[in-house]
Amino acid sequence: MDDLRERIARSLRREREAHGISVSELARRAGVSKATVSQLESGAGNPSVETLWALGDALGVPFATLVDRPADGPTLIRAADLAAGAPQVPSADAPYSATLLSASPPGARRDLYVIRAEPGEPRRSTPHHQGTTEHVVLLSGEARIGPADAPEVLSPGDYLSYRGDAPHIFEALAPGTSAVLITELR
Questions:
Q1: Are 173 and 143 in contact (CB under 8 A)?
Q2: pLDDT tens for residues 139-174?
Q3: Taking the model in full, what pTM does it have?
Q4: Whole-angstrom Cα distance, residue 169 to residue 145?
């Protein structure tokens, strides 16, 4: 949770300053207290989904802008990490929380696929268009997925993102392997 608080603090301050508004003005526009904005910008706050949505709306940015982690290389999120308490933003109004896996960057196009694969020869993909990123959530089975030179073994519920504009593979390691694949083109 501390990493999430730090990301929110940096993102909120960056966006507020980019818009040239004070903490007081942001609080007024979002309908939250100045103390709440100050606490969030210092990394000490414990925001709800509703508060972050209000702040994002007041700044004219998506919720994801305030919580997304920057990615330079592959991003792997294990299902066990999600179950064990990955950074979540709780709702103040319902038994609900959100864990952002990946935000869509401005101007991106995303295509969504369901993949079914069986053990055997891996699917070797040549690089797609420059700027392509692939996101995979393994639904069933087990698979070796990702950059051709450093694929990861995924279990059900694991999430992996990697550059699709470099050679990559999808190799089923167990019968009945299936996944959700999202290709993103910037």
A1: yes
A2: 999 999 999 999 999 999 999 999 999 999 999 999
A3: 0.58
A4: 5
**Distance from CA of residue 62 to its chain's centroid?**
13
Select 73-186's CATH number: 3.20.20.140, 3.40.50.11060, 2.60.120.10, 3.90.800.10. Answer: 2.60.120.10
Q: Which tokens belong to 61? A: 């940015």
Structure tokens, 41: 């910008």
Superfamily of segment(s) 2-70: lambda repressor-like DNA-binding domains (1.10.260.40)
Give the separation between CA 25 and CA 37, rounded to whole angstroms. Answer: 10
Residue 75, Cβ density class (10 Å: 0-12 exposed, 13-18 middle, ≥19 buried): middle
Backbone angles phi, psi at 103, to 5 degrees: -95, 145
